[in-house]
Specification:
With 119 residues, this protein is mostly beta strands. Helices cover 0% and strands 61% of the residues.
């Protein structure tokens, strides 16, 4: 089992910045990648950014250049630095941990943190 605790969401004006944090605990040795997804009202959950255990990053096209994902392995924490925020970035942001166990892949999710960008 992996537990994820997110923090750092809030209300910010357009053009502002926020940093989200996600601390992992439990069977962290089995995590092969972590990422951030978001879900706006009435929309499907979508990938924002992900980072593998080796440090390879992947971004959704619209966030590349504005968002940066990073990880601190010593703290078992993943961060999402979001700059130049836009109202369309408003959503609940979820931390994800992808685990490999017995040749099967499992996804774990945090409780979500609200990000609201006002115009």
């Amino acid at each position: 089992q992996v537990q994820l605790v997110e923090s750092g969401g809030g209300l910010v004006q357009a053009g502002g910045s926020l940093r989200l944090s996600c601390a992992a605990s439990g069977s962290i040795f089995s995590i092969i990648a972590m990422g951030w997804y978001r879900q706006a009202p009435g929309k499907q959950r979508e990938l924002v950014a992900a980072i593998t255990k080796a440090g390879t990053t992947n971004y959704a096209h619209s966030e590349k250049g504005r968002f940066t994902i990073s990880r601190d392995n010593a703290k078992n924490t993943v961060y999402l630095e979001m700059n130049n925020l836009k109202p369309e970035d408003t959503a609940v942001y979820y931390c994800n941990a992808r685990v490999l166990r017995s040749q099967n892949v499992y996804d774990y999710w945090g409780q979500g943190t609200q990000v609201t960008v006002s115009s």
